[in-house]
Specification:
The protein has 134 residues and is an alpha/beta fold. The chain is built from 6 helices and 5 strands; from the N terminus they run E-H-H-E-H-E-H-E-H-E-H. It is globular, with a radius of gyration of 14 Å. The protein binds 1,3-dihydroxyacetonephosphate. 1,3-dihydroxyacetonephosphate binds next to helix 3 and helix 4. The site of 1,3-dihydroxyacetonephosphate has 13 residues, from helix 3 and helix 4.
């Protein structure tokens, strides 16, 4: 029996001050993003689904309630191909340790990680760069 190969998985996360940027990113790259299984923290996912309902986004818990850690665990399990995380560098976060843990795991497992729009644009417009098998 042949199994249908799964799509590469992209994790999408944005802090509150960056959610409008994420919505713009999702809208303008909807066609490209549709080639991935998409996972997002709770509120980020809700905003993306509202803006681009055609995208297959699986929503996890909100970041401060464990969503960042859920994505980190998926990275440790080899289930995430790349992380796009629009970080707000100007606002203190109650869950700063979770943010750090998530980016640390992306570093540790050497997955492509975009922490701002400029890098996210590079990643999504060069999909070959993240085509590694999961
Ligand atoms: O806080 C976040 C990442 O650290 C994002 O979580 P939400 O998408 O639920 O706002």
């Amino acid at each position: 029996m042949t199994e249908t190969p799964s799509k590469p998985a992209l994790a999408l996360v944005a802090h509150d001050q960056k959610k409008d940027d994420m919505v713009r990113f999702a809208r303008s790259h909807a066609r490209r993003l549709a080639a991935f299984d998409l996972f997002a923290t709770g509120t980020t996912g809700a905003r993306i689904i509202e803006a681009a309902p055609e995208l297959p986004v699986t929503r996890l818990k909100s970041g401060p309630l464990g969503g960042d850690q859920q994505i980190g665990a998926m990275i440790a399990e080899g289930r995430i191909t790349a992380l796009i995380f629009f970080v707000d560098p100007l606002t203190p976060m109650p869950h700063d340790v979770d943010v750090k843990a998530l980016t640390r795991l992306a570093e540790l497992y050497d997955i492509p990680m975009a922490l701002n729009s400029a890098t996210a644009e590079l990643i999504i417009t060069h999909p070959g760069a993240i085509a590694r098998p999961i």
